[in-house]
Amino acid sequence: MKNGDLLEEAWQLLENSIVEYKGRPIGTLAAEDKSLSPLNYNQIFMRDFAVSAFAFLLDGRHEIVKNFLEVTVSLQSRVSQMDCFLPAKGTMPASFKVSHAAAGEKLIPDYGEKAIARVAPIDSVFWWLYILRAYVKKTNDWDYAHGDDCQQSIKSILELTLTNRFDMFPTMLVPDGSFMIDRRMGVYGYPLEIQSLFFTALLAAKELLIQNNDNKIYFENINRRLGHLVYHIRKYYWLDFKTLNQIYRFKIEEYKEHALNRFNIFPESIPSWVFNWLSDDDGYFAGNVGPSRMDFRFFTAGNLLMIINSLADKKQAGALLTLLQNREKELMGEMPLKICYPALTGKEWRLITGHDPKNTAWSYHNGGSWPSLIWYLAVASVKTGRTGHLGEMIELAERRLSRDNYPEYYDGIHNKLVGKEARRRQTWSIAGYIIAKTLLNEPQKSEILTFDESPEIQSCAENSCKELDY
Ligand code: GLC
Q1: For 95-117, how does the pLDDT look when each residue is reduced to its tens digit (9 = 90+)?
Q2: Mind giving me the DSSP string for 266-322?
Q3: 45 lines ligand 1 (CB under 6 A)
Q4: Which terminus of the chain has a smaller tally of CB atoms within 10 A, N or C?
């Protein structure tokens, strides 16, 4: 098939995945594979729809995105409660479906109470804000964003996510499987992807919330938190040869305010592969940093989002893209892009995943390759002006995506195999490709998805550094 025809085919498939509610398009199915039991893949997932939404917006199709935003606002939990079986105020579901009963159509949300392993989707509210911001950037529909419904939703998300809990970090503490990686994979604690999405959502809220006296308290807290996050993540998550060498020589058990090894990371925990993985000219953000814990695995979505939202500084963004280039063989292989590197194997796999047969080494979340992630690479490359390799990446995907019927993921160390349990016609694989291809041809369109570094946040980060001196 010719490349233009491929794009047309992808659009047709995206079109076919649209779900209607009361005669209006409101979202897209996660996958349309009739050969496998649907489980919850026949629902509209918040995180999956974000990719469809961005594709629709780039193409000037706003209606479905606005409908989705409205429907999901109506599903947001509105009541503060102490009942553990009810969703907390401000939460949004992981997914929802339209049920067609005799009494009429109804929306049925899943906040994690039905999901496999009962995982709670911390990322749903973050994706909602990111979609709303992209929608407003594209359409200038400020009346909608400034309406009561959106303003209330934004405020309850801020109250939910900025509230103090049991730790003293600016990063957000979450259970395992609370985002795209929604199975046990040792991504509990302070995973990079959640922090990066949290930061994106706060930036979006800052743009979308009405500036008035009543909202002053929200703005003050957003700015402080953004500054703390910039300082904390740039400093404690960043890994290059310089920081690796510092960690390698860390003193431990420092009981004092200005400890260098603030989280009591044991140098023995540095895995040997890291020393070969890094080169002199590159670097990346660690997967997780918490008490006596640094997860050295490379997580693609979290890292690339750091470039898109400017949480990475310019030097870090450049080094990160260099790492993707230096490690092209491992991260792209025959199909971009690996979700994380390296895979957990043997005893580590048994202990960390709980013997999960779906997440064996180099499969699914454990080092599998997810074509949906190409959109992150496209946006990050365009934002930094480093599109040299983007065309090749897209061609690589084009060689197999259509032939294999747009699988959810690929397996194997070089991503050669269609994933063992991968759905075909996975919507975000289709939409991710559409975004990347569109941006390759019209890079200027990417600005609805990116955030520039703001001097105001930079100065909050400097204050954070002085204030906390850590
Ligand atoms: C799987 C993925 C999750 C995705 C869902 C629907 O559960 O891990 O990230 O949202 O499928 O595609």
Answers
A1: 999 999 888 999 999 999 888 88
A2: -GGGS-THHHHH--TT--EE-SEEETTEEE--EEHHHHHHHHHTT-S-HHHHHHHHH
A3: yes
A4: N
